[in-house]
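Suppose a colleague, Dr. K., hands you the sequence of a protein chain of 959 amino acids and asks what its three-dimensional shape might be. Before reaching for any lab equipment, you can write down a predicted structure in C-alpha cell form. Begin with the sequence itself:
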Amino acid sequence: MPLVHEIDYGTPASKSTETVTLTIDGLQVTVPAGTSVMRASMEAGIQVPKLCATDMVDAFGSCRLCLVEVEGRNGTPASCTTPCAPGMVVHTQTERLKQIRKGVMELYISDHPLDCLTCAANGDCELQDMAGAVGLRDVRYGYEGDNHVKTRNNGDINAKWMPKDESNPYFTYDPSKCIVCSRCVRACEEVQGTFALTIEGRGFDSRVSPGAHEHFLESECVSCGACVQACPTATLTEKSVIAIGQPEHSAVTTCAYCGVGCSFKAEMRGEELVRMVPYKDGKANRGHSCVKGRFAYGYATHKDRILNPMMREKITDPWREVTWEEALAHVSSEFRRLQYQYGKDSIGGITSSRCTNEETFLVQKLIRAGFGNNNVDTCARVCHSPTGYGLGQAFGTSAGTQDFDSVEHSDVIMVIGANPSAAHPVFASRMKKRIRQGAKLIVLDPRETETVNSVHARADYHLPLKPGTNVAVITALAHVIVTEGLFDEAFIRERCDWSEFEDWAAFVAEPQHSPEETEKFTGVAADLVRGAARLYARGGNGAIYYGLGVTEHSQGSTTVMAIANLAMATGNIGRPGVGVNPLRGQNNVQGSCDMGSFPHELPGYRHVSDDATRDTFEKLWGVKLDNEPGLRIPNMLDAAVDGSFKGIYIQGEDILQSDPDTKHVSAGLAAMECVVVHDLFLNETANYAHVFLPGSTFLEKDGTFTNAERRINRVRKVMSPKNGLADWEVTQKLAQAMGLPWNYSHPSEIMDEIAATTPSFASVSYELLEKMGSVQWPCNEKFPEGSPIMHVGGFVRGKGKFIRTEYVATDERTGPRFPLLLTTGRILSQYNVGAQTRRTENIAWHAEDRLEIHPHDAEQRGIKDGDWVRLASRAGETTLRAFITERVSPGVVYTTFHHPETQANVITTDFSDWATNCPEYKVTAVQVAPSNGPSEWQQDYEDLSRQSRRIAGKLEAAE
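The predicted structure, expressed as C-alpha cells, is then:
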C-alpha cells in the first residue's frame, strides 16, 4: 500500500453557505464565500507555491512566496490572506511572479544549511520542494554556511552551528534549519491551545523558542506534535524519522488510547513503524493529536511483550512456554472440568475495552454460547456503567448525545468530574478554542485542574465541591433554574412528560435543595451555584461534558440522571452545541458496552430476559441462551472467595491494578483454579494466572473501535502480529477447542454478524466505513449514514423522563482516624494502569504516582514537598511521595493510579454505585503521615510480582 497523501490547501475551509465565482488562470471556480485565493486555486488543481501557509492554521502571509496578480488591483497580494471576490480574475503564474518568487526563495536558501543529502527531512521538506517549484538554480548571497544560525561572539562569526535541543524524548529542535515561518507557533496556539512557543529575537537572530525556557522538556510544551507536523523543514523532526528514514507506505487507523478515537496515518518502512501522523480527515480529531497517540506507540515492540503462550500448575511455579494448541486445549479441558465439577455458572469472562468491537463481540459470544451462561462483564463496570443506566433511564439510550464537532456551536460548556486537558486532550483543545472564541466555561471539580485554569481558557465558574456531593450540587443548580423560572417550558411540554416534570420541579424546589442549604456540606458557595445555574440556563447553547468524577461514586447513576434532568429542563438536547456527553476513558469502552459485555444485556443494550432478542441470537448461533443475568465482576470475585466461581478468561484487562479494594481482588483470583489472562504483558492480574495467552496490539489487526461520540472507526493492520495471532483469532481458536463451529476468516465477517443481530448497527459494514470514513450509531435503515446528534425531534424512549435525585451521603465517612478524603484521576502523559505508557518515553514526564496535598494539611502533618508519606484507609495502606499544591482544597488529597508500585487501589474501598456496582474510587477516607519506606503490602506484593514473572528457560539462561 502506498503512502496516504493528504492535500494541504494552505488555509482552512470556509464554513459559509454562500458562494462566489471567480477566474483563476483562465478556469472558472466557485467556492464558499470567505475562501482564500490560495485554497480556491488548490481546489481547482492549481498549486501556488507556499511556505508559511498550511490549512491547519489561519493564514499568516509572511513568506511572500504565494503572491498572485489580480486584474484591476495594484501589487502582488499574498494568495493565502486574499479572500475570493465575485468576478475576480487571478493569475498565479506570470513572469513578474516568477522573478519575485525566485528572489524570495534565494534569500531563504542563502540563510539555510545546504546539507540536504544527509538531512532527515530529505524527501519530505517543503523548502526543498519550493526551491524546485520556483526553479531556483543559483544563490548569489553570502557564502555557504555564513548565516544567522551561527553563534556570534562579540560580533565575530563563530563557525559553529547552534546546538540542537534533544531534550524532548520524541523530537529534535534544530535552530539552524528554522525559516521563521511561525507555523509551529501558530499550531501551538490555534490547534493545541498551549501557547508554549514564540519567535525569539529579531532579524537574523530570530528563531523559534519554547517560551522562556531553554529546552523543550522544561517548557510548557505538552508534546502533542502539532508543531512537528506543521514544520515545513527539519527544524522540528521526529527522532524516529532521524533513526529510521522516511516512510514508504502508510494506512489510516485509530488510536488505541482514550475514548476520543483519533485517526492516524501509521507511516511505515516495511513492517517498522516510523511515525504516527494525525489524519486530517479524522472526524474525531480533525488532524490533531496528543503525546500518547502521536508518540507513545513504542510499547508495541517493547522487550517486555510476551510472544508465546505460557502455562503453570500453581501461581508459585515459574511459567513455561507452550504451543498455542497445548495452551488452548488445556484451557478448554480445565473450563469443562470446572463446569462438570462445580456447575455451569462456575466460570466466566471479562471483555476488553482495549480490543476491537469484533473481538469483544466474540468474547461475549464465547461465554454465552460456549460457557452457557451470562457471566460476562467489562471494565465499564468500574468506570461508565452508571452512564449506561442513567442515560438509558432518562433518554432511552446508553450513550452521549453529540459528536465532538458540536462543541464548536456551544455557548456555555459545563464540565463535571472530568479534566479533559489531562484525560482527553484532543477534545480539550477543541473545547478551549471555542472558549477563546467567547464560550463560557463552568467546572465542577474538587481540584483546580488544568481545565479550570489554562492559558487563555479559564473557567467563569469553578465549583470546588467536596468529593461525594455531586448529586446535592447538581440538584442545587436545578433548584435555581426551577425557582427562578429559567426552565424551557415549551421544550418540556413538547418533548417530556409534563406531570413528571412537575413532580421533579416540586422536589428540587424544596428549601433543603437551595444553594444556601447545600453549601453547608458541599463546600460550594451559594453565589457560585446561583451564578453557574443562571449562566447555563440563560447563556445560549449549553453543553455538559462529564467523566469518572461523576460515575465513580455510590450515587453515580443518580448523578447521571441529575445531569440529564438539567439538560431537559433547559431544552439543551437535540441540536448542535448542547447535549449530555460522557467522556469515555478507554479507546473502546463505548464499543465494549455496545457489544453486549454486561451480564444482563445482549449486544445493543437488550436485556437477556427478552425472548425475541434471545431468539435472534439462538437461531444464528444454534444454541439455547440463558435468560437470567450473570455475575458482575464484583460478584465473580465474591463467588470465588465463597468457593463457587472457579475459572475466568480475562482479555486485555488488568483488574488487579484497576479495580477497587485490591486485597479483595487478589483474594478472589487466588481462590480460582484456572485464571486465563490474554494480554500483551505479564500484568498485575497475571500474578495470579495459570495460563497466559499473548495478545496483539492495534497495529497488528483489523477491526473497529467506537469512541465516546458513538463513532465507529476502522482499525487497520499495518504489521504482522508478533505473537502470531490477532486477538479475535485467539478467541476463535479457544471457541473451536471448546467445540464451537466458528470459522470467521476476517473481522469484516464478524461485523456483518453484529449488523445482522444489533439494530443500532444494522447498516454498518466495512464497505460503508471505507466509503464514509466513519459513522456514528445508530446506523440503520432510518439513519443510513449514522447519527451525529441523538434525540433530534424526540427522545429514543419517546418522552424524556425526569427523575427525582435524592442526595444520599456515602457510607464512606471521614473521622478522627481518617480525616481526609482521597480522590483519584489521570495525568496527561500516562494512561490508565500504565501498562502501555510506562513502556514508552512518556515516563520522562511522570515516573511515579504522587500524592497531591494542600499546604495546610501538609504543614499539620510535618510533610514537605517530595517527602515519602504513608497513605492509609480502612481498606489498606501504601506509600508514595507528596506533592504540595493548592490545586486541591484543604481536607482533600489526590493521586493517580498509573504505577503498580503504588497500588492506589489498596486504599479504595468496596463501596459502589447503588444501581451498577461501579466502585466509589472518588471518595475514600484516609490519613496521611510521614513514612520511612514501602508498606508491608507493597513489600509483599513486590516479592509476589518478582516470583510470578519467572519464565522457565529464560530463568535458567539468566542464572
